[in-house]
Amino acid sequence: MKLPAQPPSSPLPETGTLSDADLRQAFRADKAAQIEKYRASGKIDTLMRGLARNADRTLSAIWQDCHLPGGLTLVAVGGYGRGELAPHSDIDILVLLPVEPDEALTGRLERFIGCAWDLGLDVGSSVRTIDQCIDEAVADITVQTSLLEARRIVGNTQLFERFLRETRHALDPRTFFQAKLLEMRQRHAKYQDTPYSLEPNCKESPGGLRDLQVIVWMARAAGLGSTWQEFEQSGLITAHEAQELRRNEFFLKTLRARLHILANRRQDVLVFDLQTALAEAFGYRASASRRASEPLMRRYYWAAKAVTQLSTILIQNIEARLNPDQSGITRVLSRHFVEKQGMIEIIADDLFEREPTAILEAFLLYEKIQGVKGLSARTLRALYNSRNRMTLGWRRDPENRRLFLEILQQPAGITRALRLMNQTSVLGSYLTNFGRIVGQMQHDLYHVYTVDQHILTVLRNIRRYGSSEHAHEYPFCSDLFANFERPWVLYVTALFHDIAKGRGGDHSILGTTDARRFCREHGIDENDSALIVWLVEHHLTMSQVAQKQDTSDPAVINAFADLVASERRLTALYLLTVADIRGTSPKVWNAWKGKLLEDLYRLTRQVLGGAAPDSHSDLARRREAARAELRLKLVPPGAEAPLWEQLDVSYFLRHEPGEIAWQTQKLLPFVTTDMPVVRARPSPIGEGLQVLVYSKDRPDLFASICGYFNRHGLSVQQALIHTTRHGYALDDFLVSDPNMEAHHRDIANLVEQELAAQLQSSKGLPDLSKGRLSRLSRAFPMTPRIDLRPDERGQYFILSLSANDRAGLLYSIAKVLAEHHIGVRAARIDTLGDRVEDVFLIEGGQLADSRTQIRLETELLGAIAI
């Protein structure tokens, strides 16, 4: 029987020796005293045991005051069963019964739990007999785990001892081990198999406290001990490993406790809002070049890495004890290594000390040998103990340089090999500048991983282009990659493209020095070296051109083609750019960015192939293709003429034939209408909603449209603004909504009706309060930037701005422009996580006046400021 999580309030019985107010005050006072004592001493184990004892005393008092029968037992389970509590951990208890309760006893138990809640104990409770406990444990590994650490608080001792015997007898150590291993893998997958997110969960993320707890549960179930000292005595770990485990466990427990105290609630995620205060609680202080949180987070990442490596050793050793009959050699892999239980194992414990080149050989074998799952505990331990062998001489050894390059040149297994090399600190020992960016934070509002994790994610993305099982994700990239000579050049580039982050200065320029040195030292030929260095220098260029410049302008394409200079460079840069953007955050990449990059790639390749951009021939091609689609839609020949006569060349160059045909079909009956026309459809590029607005132009039109989107929670991803020869605005928007996908057709119909009605209304532009910033933007506010300058032809002005993203930001910008009677000819809206980079092509005679420009820039800065 499971009682309600938080039963209705019920007062303590009058017969108790203490009133509920006295008991509540005593519980809170003791908890506060324990926390104050901890602040002075820093002894985390004393704090956690003290909080558990306080809960024990309070629950025992409630138990006595509720006069529960002597045949029952109150049992602490889960973390509370270990005799430890973090400041705001929940308190898991089991009321153990000899038989099923009757109605009267059920009522008493409910009063007991209700009193516990009233006194401020965050209890999670269950009421079961021993048989029910065993049945539940068999059905649910979580229940079985919580019972493994059961501890009697008060009540019948004989019942509790029988409970321990029978639950222990019902436990199958091998089954339990496999279940916990699968559970751990699922949990790690939930956190993308990395501890290196910028807001990790110090309890549940890979390398967190939960991993250490899983090891203890596995070993205890196998009868191998329940403390690091007992594991050392049983031979599962060495004395040094036990010391490292204790040290990192102490740090993680301390981190979690201080996080609870700061948040004043149960809080296990290291959110940006609390990282600075948490760092200061550890004694870190900000400097001119770094935030206080950065050294703390780096300390956390290194602890998580050590926990991951040491837990892997322990898990393998526990498995070997549970399955001793499977510990033989499967096959000989080389003169240095054999395979055991699917793992690569060294032939002698001192191998890496005697022959340091075997370190990289282990990872090369991990790539090349089919069927192996990783490095054995013995191999990992030897790696851990041979870190002093990875010296400057080891890095300069020609054999090691050959092996490392061979690792990068393998046709498969590169991602997993480099990730394991990073996990074991071998990658940072070989590439020392890579070691410097391990655990380095990125506060640019769109990266969600540390620099080293981002680099390895980019490399993984490139590798997946060549994997048949991932070819469906980005088929165009996969097609280009299949025909790209020496793809390992891209892997080298991925390793170095962000390696200079955090040094100060332009990391794209600084990184070229590292890349050039690597190529020279590893004997990479001149052409490939030049490509790698060029890609590192220009790895941001393609995304900037695609997202911030008008790629329908032949001059833009020609300039980009001059920079790229060859099709191999273009293809390499395109593949790297797609992988790089996708490796920043799941929120940054979308189909619209993909289309912009692909369009730029195709247009540039035409130029590099000798077909210079010819707006006249391209215009004719687009028109003919659009006419062909109109014929398929049963539009009579020549029917498009009245509308097309009002459209200039820029319209046709900025729209694909399919879009031209769709817009033409929708607008043919309304070429000279007095009423606003709005049409919407699911975006043909696969994400969001495409909204077409056709109306007589007026200064506040763009702002009115943006205001509507803002009120309905629609985020503008792209805006193509066009003014016809006869004074109509023909505007095309791509908008998105996280909740749109399931019902985008209903939203399309609603947008058509509501937006048209609003544009017809004569109401002015409403004032909107500034939208709330995200947690990330509040923690890392950026200085807003405005840049206003005439375009190269002097016909229009280009307005560029960057700021923290928030709801209503685009409307705030559009409203300022409307109030100054500034027309928007085109807009490029680019949202990078929690940061926006927007570019507007604007017009207005008053922009020629420098004072007007200053006034406009000042008001825009005020509109986008936090």
From TrEMBL:
Cofactor(s) needed: Mg(2+)
InterPro entries for the chain: ACT-like_dom_sf, ACT_dom, HD/PDEase_dom, HD_domain, NT_sf, PII_UdlTrfase/GS_AdlTrfase, Polymerase_NTP_transf_dom, UTase/UR
Stretches the record annotates as Uridylyltransferase: 1-332
EC numbers for this chain: 2.7.7.59, 3.1.4.-
Xref: Pfam families: GlnD_UR_UTase (PF08335), HD (PF01966), NTP_transf_2 (PF01909)
Record's catalysed reaction(s): [protein-PII]-uridylyl-L-tyrosine + H2O = [protein-PII]-L-tyrosine + UMP + H(+); [protein-PII]-L-tyrosine + UTP = [protein-PII]-uridylyl-L-tyrosine + diphosphate
Domain HD, residue spans: 451-573
Domain of life: Bacteria
One GO molecular-function entry: [protein-PII] uridylyltransferase activity
CDD domains: ACT_ACR-UUR-like_2, ACT_UUR-like_1, HDc, NT_GlnE_GlnD_like
Residue spans crossing the bilayer: none
Activity regulation description: Uridylyltransferase (UTase) activity is inhibited by glutamine, while glutamine activates uridylyl-removing (UR) activity.
Transmembrane helix is among the record's keywords: no
Function recorded in the entry: Modifies, by uridylylation and deuridylylation, the PII regulatory proteins (GlnB and homologs), in response to the nitrogen status of the cell that GlnD senses through the glutamine level. Under low glutamine levels, catalyzes the conversion of the PII proteins and UTP to PII-UMP and PPi, while under higher glutamine levels, GlnD hydrolyzes PII-UMP to PII and UMP (deuridylylation). Thus, controls uridylylation state and activity of the PII proteins, and plays an important role in the regulation of nitrogen metabolism.
Family annotation (HAMAP family): PII_uridylyl_transf
Entry's family note: Belongs to the GlnD family.
Swiss-Prot/TrEMBL domain comment: Has four distinct domains: an N-terminal nucleotidyltransferase (NT) domain responsible for UTase activity, a central HD domain that encodes UR activity, and two C-terminal ACT domains that seem to have a role in glutamine sensing.
UniProt-recorded name of the protein: Bifunctional uridylyltransferase/uridylyl-removing enzyme
Organism annotation: Robbsia betulipollinis
Gene name in the database record: glnD
